[in-house]
Amino acid sequence: MNRKIMFVHIPKTGGYTLDMFFRSCCGYERSVDVTYEAAVPHDVFDEHDVILGHRPITFFEDYPVAHPKFTIFREPAERLVSYQRYLSRRHQHPLHSWARSVDFPTFCAEAPQKDRTARSQAYYATGNIKPTLNEIREAIDKRFWMASTLEYIDVAADIVRKYMGWPPAEIGHFNDGGGSFVDSSKQSVFDDISIDSATLKAVRRDFALDYYAYSYALERFVERWVLSDH
After folding, report:
1. Distance of CA 63 to CAs 77, 120, 170, 221, 223, Å?
2. Rounded CA gap, 200 and 184, in Å?
3. CA distance 214 to 12
4. Phi, psi (deg, nearest 5) at residue 32
């Protein structure tokens, strides 16, 4: 079996954990990140089985040979909290001081304009900055071989493992900025990052497409991969 696969790595959705899992299954050098490539190298699969990157699906679709593509979505507010925590810990990151100096509502409003990491999940899934709901559904249903959510990352990892013909393996969890998100009137999620109901309402408004993509992906993943024999 010599299968290849493409991972559309939406930032702050658990992709690092998956990459470490892939490397433990197929060998460290068999997985490669193409985030900073101008295009997917034409010979990339000569020495690699998995390619991944913080690039939209269109970047991978430009590769002349079609290979299965998959991605992971995350609850949008949890993802933003995770990213602010990540920046607050990375002293050498250009946005470190800014991330530590602003409150969470300001971070949510300004981060997407400052860094592509905070761009919408819907953008990575479709290649469009403001896709329609139909485009989101089409991407999840037809353009991706599999679209999961962070809650099911273990299941998704095992599906990829079986598809690739890798031996059984345990997935580790390399969480450097994430955690459980609790929706309450005021919940201290991480050390100095808290969210209240007004902020959550604003995030749901400003990232409505991400909430739709996340919810639809969760629904379809459960239907196709959890409740069926696929």
Report:
1. 32, 23, 31, 25, 29
2. 9
3. 13
4. -140, 140
Q: What does pTM read for this prediction?
A: 0.90
Closest to 117 (Cα-Cα) out of 88, 75, 92, 86: 86
**Segment 1-54, tens digit of pLDDT:** 689 999 999 999 999 999 999 999 998 899 999 999 999 999 999 999 999 999
Size (the chain), residues: 230
Q: In terms of Cα–Cα distance, which of 121, 114, 128 is closest to 13? A: 121
Instruction: Determine contact, residues 51/6, Cβ cutoff 8 Å.
Output: yes
Quote the CA–CA distance of 123 and 117 in Å, as a whole number: 11
Backbone angles phi, psi at 104, to 5 degrees: -65, -40
**Amino acid, res. 147:** A
- Residue 141 is given by DSSP the state I
